[in-house]
Amino acid sequence: MKSKKSITRKLFIITSIVFAAFITTNLIVQSVFFEQFYIRWKKNNLEDNLVKFKNEYTLLKNNDDESNLISSFEDQNNYKIIIRDNLGNLKYLTKTADERKDSIKARLMDQIMSTEIANIGGITKLKEGKKSLIFITAKNPDMEVSIAGISYDEKKDEIVYVFSSLQPVNEAVQVIKEFYLYFYIGALFVILLLSLIYSNMIAKPLIKITKTATKMAKLNFTEKCEIKSEDEIGALAESLNLLSENLNEALTSLKNANTQLEKDIEKEKKLTEMRKDFVASVSHELKTPITLIEGYTLALNDDVLEGNEKQYFIDVIMDESRKMNSLVSDMLNLSQLESGNFKLVKEEFFLNELVKPMARKFSSLLNEKNIKLQLELIKNIEVKADWNRIEQVLTNYMTNAIRHTNNGRSISIRMINRKDTICVEVENSGSKINTDETNKIWDSFYKIDKSRTRKLGGTGLGLSIVKNIILLHGGKCGVENTEIGVKFYFILMKN
Question: Phi first, then psi: what are they for 166, rounded to 5°?
Fold first, then answer.
């Protein structure tokens, strides 16, 4: 608001001063110089008319023609004429309706002109000069100030006197001065009004531009400068709007790039942490079998074992070697799956034909823990998938289920038919998973039970492998707590 008042006030004051100065200067110039200009113009005009009259008058020889020319000249130019012959006798004296009064003025003017001729050196000087004598009469109580001219006609040897009163001019000057006074007052009022309108016309667009620029400075590019004038201010507004759009696009792009960079940095941090955890987990998983193999190998190397004890040591070394091989194999599988370079070998098959025989493979482990297996399969549900990889998914689910199911409990494998998909669930009775761990269990080497037995050969990579296999198939996998325990599932598109 302060800026608005300031620019409006400045424009108003400057415009008012300029116009007021112009009107005032005009009034002063008119008051001081108009009368002088008019008198100069009147002298030049009288001199030209006198030469014109003399040229026409010289050609006339008839008295009547001369009288007509003189009367016409007096009427047209508002002049009075007096003519004297070469002997100084009065040949013509101007006449008007008030003959007596005008005759007195004419005779008085005749005296004035005679005096003027005498002042320049007499009639001889006038004749030698061959040029009209133009002058303003001095103030006289018996006669108003007049402009007069004297010219010598060589051909007729006569002197022509011409004069006209300047009193109307003086009155006109006074009237003009008074008129200009009223005009000056009115003009000042109009100037103030126009200055206010003009200053607002200029200030309002500038204020809009300033408002838009201020918001741009605060990185707010929603404001547009709506000025449609086809001038420099309109062009400035368009340039400002274009600048706003370009800055908005640049900053938006920069923000998006910054956001993506932050995500990439955060992702890199997570990857770094994952690498650290991965190395730590791999080291932990390999440490036990390597320690066992080393210890039992040293014992065998000492050759102090015999019979069954020696065979037991050999069996332990072979078992730990298999576990190490399984871990390395799972790591290679996971690496291939996560790299995106792994190619599935898809084929069409009925899903129940994969589930049923695969479940039988775990009969010995189920019997060992007295676990009851329940199958709820649906026939003739065809999918297009990699048989071996889906079998690997089910194997991991079953291994997990058996590991976390107590003796004498149950495991269920069921198929659920949906509109476009088929869902396979593996549910085991037992302990539930904490809600905050349901997402973490899919990470590599993450184990809920840190102290669980290694009897089933778990590496901590099974669920990570499951997640990547299902994602490569365009499916979905997950885990849920149920009333009796935990349910793992995966979903595939039907063929």
Answer: -95, 5
Q: Tell me: the pLDDT tens digits for 168-218?
A: 666 666 777 777 777 777 877 877 787 777 667 776 777 777 778 877 777
Sign of CA dihedral 440, 441, 445, 447: positive
Beta bridge partners of 135: 148
Query: 396, 371, 384, 382: which is closest to 488 by C-alpha?
Result: 396
Burial class (CB in 10 A: 0-12, 13-18, 19+), 352: middle
Return contacts of 14-17, CB within 8 angstroms, 24+ apart: 15/191, 15/194, 15/195, 15/198, 15/199, 16/191, 16/192, 16/195
Burial 200-223 (b: 16+ CB within 10 A, else e): beebebbbbbeebeeebeeeebeb
What order of strands is seen across the sheet that includes strand 485-493? 372-376, 410-417, 421-429, 485-493, 476-481
Order of all β-strands in the sheet with 146-153: 90-93, 80-84, 158-165, 146-153, 133-136
Structure tokens at 92: 């013509």
Question: From the CB of residue 492, how many other CB atoms can be counted at a distance below 10 Å?
Answer: 22
Q: Name which residue leads in pLDDT, 383 or 25.
A: 383
- Inter-residue contact 160 to 50 (CB < 8 Å): yes
Structure tokens at 479: 């885990």
Tens digits of residue pLDDT in 376-411: 999 999 999 999 889 989 988 998 899 889 899 999
**Spatial separation of the C-alpha atoms in residues 234 and 487, rounded to whole Å:** 69
Lowest mean pLDDT among 91-100, 157-166, 315-324, 444-453: 444-453
Q: How many CA atoms lie within 13 A of 20 on its CB side?
A: 12
Q: Which of 278, 387, 403 is nearest to 330 (CA)?
A: 278
Question: How far is residue 407 from each of residues 255, 256, 458, measured CA to CA in Å?
Answer: 57, 55, 19
| Torsion 313-317-319-320 (CA) sign | positive
In the structure encoding, which two tokens stand for residue 411, read together? 């495991």
- Taking the C-alpha atoms of residue 320 and residue 287, their distance in angstroms, rounded to an integer, is 11
User: How far separated are the first and last CA of the chain, in Å rounded?
Assistant: 71
Give the C-alpha separation, 199 to 197, whole Å.
6
HSE-CB of 233 using CA atoms within 13 angstroms: 15
- The Cα–Cα gap between 303 and 379 comes to 59
From the list 376, 432, 426, 430, the residue with the least C-alpha distance to 407 is 430
Read off the pTM.
0.44
The b/e string for 264-278 (b: 16+ C-beta within 10 A; e otherwise) is eeeeeeeeeeeeeeb
d(CA 452, CA 326): 18
Pairwise CA distance, residues 122 & 130, whole Å: 13
Tokens of 47: 């001199």
